[in-house]
Design goal:
Belongs to the bacterial solute-binding protein ModA family. Keywords: Metal-binding, Molybdenum, Signal. Pfam families: SBP_bac_11. The complex is composed of two ATP-binding proteins (ModC), two transmembrane proteins (ModB) and a solute-binding protein (ModA). By secondary structure, the protein is α/β, with parallel strands linked by helices. The chain has 2 domains: 116 residues, D-Maltodextrin-Binding Protein, domain 2, CATH 3.40.190; 98 residues, 3-Layer(aba) Sandwich (D-Maltodextrin-Binding Protein, domain 2), CATH 3.40.190. A 5-stranded mixed sheet has the order 2-1-3-10-4. Strands 7-6-8-5-9 form a 5-stranded mixed sheet, with helices on both faces. β1, α2 and β2 form a beta-alpha-beta unit. The chain is globular, with a radius of gyration of 22 Å.
């Protein structure tokens, strides 16, 4: 007996069992969005079963460089306007498709156990705070916000020598959580992620509001799904997730 019918039947079986083809939608998002976007992605997929969301987190500046160099990305969600401005200037995103979708706050955190808490920014100049985690201002938005408030307070030259540079806000958070530094600057939403390991000493008003923009990447291979995802983060279900993690309205 020929084995061809059996092979044909097996092939047909594979076709029957094969899942619906899923298009990958790559979302490059600021590290501070990690927890919220990991929860939002399956909600989006539930409404768009033909699309699989691939999440790529990092410092906004680093993500921008990846996209500019041709790394695959369909959506860019930045933690600051400056990174998105640069993306727009390089025609990586279209101005008309850019949306602000959440806001955040800048805080000073210290290890939860046994660490002194500064009462004011100027206290960080004291010897008790010899190592302070700050995102690298050149590529990390939280670092730029931090440098801005310290410069405005006339403290940057005092604090900079104590700076332990972080590649992204979550690295700054980890440094403080592990007690490797005496204090650090992160977003309020990041501090909440490790509320058992860090405590918020100060909430620092920023001169520029901490507003997160999001936009489809102009050269992204999945433009239709990218526009759907950008629209989805502004819907009540996605905004509820973001609010749960402490993000505010834009």
């Amino acid at each position: 007996m020929s084995r061809t019918p059996a092979r044909l039947a097996a092939a047909l079986g594979l076709l029957v069992c094969w899942p619906v083809w899923a298009a990958d939608l790559t979302v490059s998002a600021a590290a501070s969005l990690t927890n919220a976007f990991k929860e939002i992605a399956p909600l989006f997929e539930a409404q768009n079963p033909d699309t699989k969301v691939q999440l790529n987190f990092g410092a906004s500046g680093a993500l921008l460089q990846q996209i500019a160099k041709g790394a695959p990305a369909d959506v860019f969600a930045s933690a600051d306007q400056e990174s998105m401005d640069q993306a727009q200037a390089q025609s990586l995103v279209k101005p008309a498709e850019r949306r602000n979708f959440v806001s955040n706050s800048l805080v000073v955190i210290v290890p939860a156990t046994g660490a002194p808490s500064p009462k004011a920014l100027a206290d960080l100049g004291q010897p008790a705070y010899g190592r302070i985690a700050i995102g690298l201002p050149a590529s990390v938005p939280v670092g730029r916000y931090t440098k801005g408030v310290l410069e405005k307070a006339g403290l940057w030259t005092t604090i900079e020598p104590k700076m332990i540079g972080a590649q992204n806000v979550r690295q700054a958070l980890d440094y403080v959580a592990r007690g490797e530094v005496d204090a650090g600057f992160v977003y309020g939403t990041d501090a909440a992620v490790m509320a058992d390991k860090v405590k918020v000493a100060l909430t620092v008003p920023t001169e520029v509001p901490v507003l997160y923009p999001i936009a489809p990447v102009a050269s992204g291979p999945n433009a239709a799904a990218a526009r759907k995802f950008v629209a989805f983060v502004l819907t009540p279900p996605a905004q509820a997730v973001l609010a749960k993690y402490g993000f505010g309205k834009p």
